[in-house]
């Protein structure tokens, strides 16, 4: 893989990262990075995550356990699946990641598969050097400005991933009383993101107890409400930054007390600072 672009975000200890969007690939974010000491806290994504490890070892923590991938390995994560990520070896890991939106994956699935319902990945990790190389080739084509190649490679890659590792995802409709309570709690936190209630006040409002709410929320979303709220604030911050809002105004709009708090949480979850993220989308 070529060296990072000149405007890739410089990092300490040999780390670097570039999180960007190519105009020729709507509905897709790209991240190419090398991390050694950086670790991603528990978070989730609106869309899908597909990454190819190009060196070292990446370790991903899920509710059901931890998976590891080395050179030639692929990691696939469906929307709203809570996970962590960190180095699985002292030398860290480097990878090329694609973040296709749900709309992009749905369009490809409908055209190339017979899957019914919402298409997704039934496996999280796979050893497939050929598909791993195709993921890195999507990056190379985008970085060289070759929209035809980038779009073609993206669609072929996602179609092959779904063919090998795809299946219908379970319905997200809350069925149990606990799941419905968790969904109501999430709606309250989304609505009052800048000034959320305490756990006790939220539980009282929903007619449950604090510990029951904690258990239900974690079962539904893979993380407790306060962790989910930090992740949700960062997601909303991304949208504001993409629209051109300054980091300081973004921090206040999503409920962080100041810009340093936004910087810290945003960098931990997204992998690059908010200023660099905003610059890549205004270029």
TrEMBL record:
Source organism per UniProt: Streptomyces lydicus
Q: Which InterPro entries match?
A: AraC-bd, AraC_XylS_family_regulators, Homeodomain-like_sf, HTH-like, HTH_AraC
Q: Which GO molecular function annotation, any one, does this entry have? A: DNA-binding transcription factor activity
Q: What is this protein called?
A: AraC family transcriptional regulator
**SUPFAM superfamilies to which the protein is assigned, alphabetical:** Homeodomain-like (SSF46689), Regulatory protein AraC (SSF51215)
Q: Does the keyword ATP-binding apply?
A: no
* Coiled-coil residues: none
Keyword DNA-binding on entry = yes
| Residues in HTH araC/xylS-type domain copies | 183-280
Gene3D superfamilies cross-referenced by the UniProt entry: Homeodomain-like
What are the protein's UniProt keywords?
DNA-binding, Transcription, Transcription regulation
């Amino acid at each position: 893989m070529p060296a990072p672009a000149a405007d890739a975000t410089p990092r300490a200890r040999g780390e670097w990262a570039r999180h960007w969007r190519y105009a020729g690939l709507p509905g897709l974010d790209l991240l190419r990075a090398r991390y050694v000491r950086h670790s991603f806290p528990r978070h989730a994504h609106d869309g899908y995550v597909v990454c190819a490890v190009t060196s070292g070892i990446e370790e991903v923590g899920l509710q059901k356990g931890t998976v590891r991938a080395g050179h030639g390995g692929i990691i696939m994560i469906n929307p709203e699946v809570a996970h962590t990520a960190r180095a699985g070896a002292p030398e860290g890991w480097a990878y090329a990641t694609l973040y296709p939106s749900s709309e992009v994956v749905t369009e490809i699935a409908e055209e190339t598969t017979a899957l019914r319902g919402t298409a997704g990945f039934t496996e999280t990790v796979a050893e497939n050097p050929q598909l791993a190389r195709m993921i890195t080739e999507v990056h190379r084509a985008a970085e060289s400005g070759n929209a035809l190649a980038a779009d073609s490679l993206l669609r072929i890659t996602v179609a092959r991933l779904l063919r090998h590792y795809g299946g219908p995802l379970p319905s997200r409709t809350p069925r149990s009383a606990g799941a419905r309570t968790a969904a109501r709690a999430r709606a309250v936190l989304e609505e009052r993101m800048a000034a959320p209630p305490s756990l006790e006040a939220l539980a009282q409002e929903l007619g449950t107890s604090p510990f029951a709410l904690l258990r239900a929320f974690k079962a539904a979303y893979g993380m407790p409400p306060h962790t989910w709220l930090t992740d949700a604030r960062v997601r909303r911050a991304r949208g504001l930054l993409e629209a051109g809002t300054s980091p300081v105004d973004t921090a206040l709009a999503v409920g962080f007390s100041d810009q340093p708090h936004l910087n810290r949480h945003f960098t931990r979850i997204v992998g690059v600072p908010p200023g660099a993220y905003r610059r890549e989308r205004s270029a």
